[in-house]
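seq:
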Amino acid sequence: MLLLIDAGNTRVKWAIALDGAAPGDWIAHGAVAHADLETLGDAWAGHAIARALVSNVAGATLAERLAAQLPVAPTPFVARPELAGLRNRYREPARLGADRFAAALGARTLAPARALVVATCGTATTVDAVSADGDFVGGMILPGLGLMLGSLARNTAQLPQVAAGANMPPTFADNTQDAILSGCLAAQAGAIERACAALPEALCILSGGAAPQVAPALGVPYRMLDNIVLVGLHAAAPYFN
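struct:
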């Protein structure tokens, strides 16, 4: 069996697939916060895992903790100049974040032969462009919704900590909490809409833990796809033996 791991800055997401299964066809999957990383060994214990492909953007310390839970030596996933029909046009291809390259590959796997804007809303929000013929063109990185909200509370004297709730605030809010949330959501949505305006033929793919909060603020059509990095890792697995 194949274990796929997306180690992000806040959570570790994982999926287990049978050998030869189509990308996204998993027999088990889940996610834990970094504080609960040591529970993963038990979650994986009932599966005959032969390979583990890992995208890690959370640093060396987390990589060591993660490796201690694995039944096999992990195979690191890294961006390549070309992989599975996706060509990496980053100025230095190896410096492209593994999660961004995997997300682009996952989006292209699920929506082939389409120009794509791939927006992943996590601790950071990344907004990347893929051409219809398979070029990863580049993209944007900005603080995620939670970081934006938290930074205002930490770095101002009078603004409160605001949580992203289920209700969309009005654009011109009549109270401070809603005004903060409205502004941060507008910043997230504005980056995505700017990318879509620059690539008007593109399908907008939205993913990540904060995607459900950002989605109602968007003024462009989008397709929500969960665990897009894991889908990309699954598509890449035959090339990482």
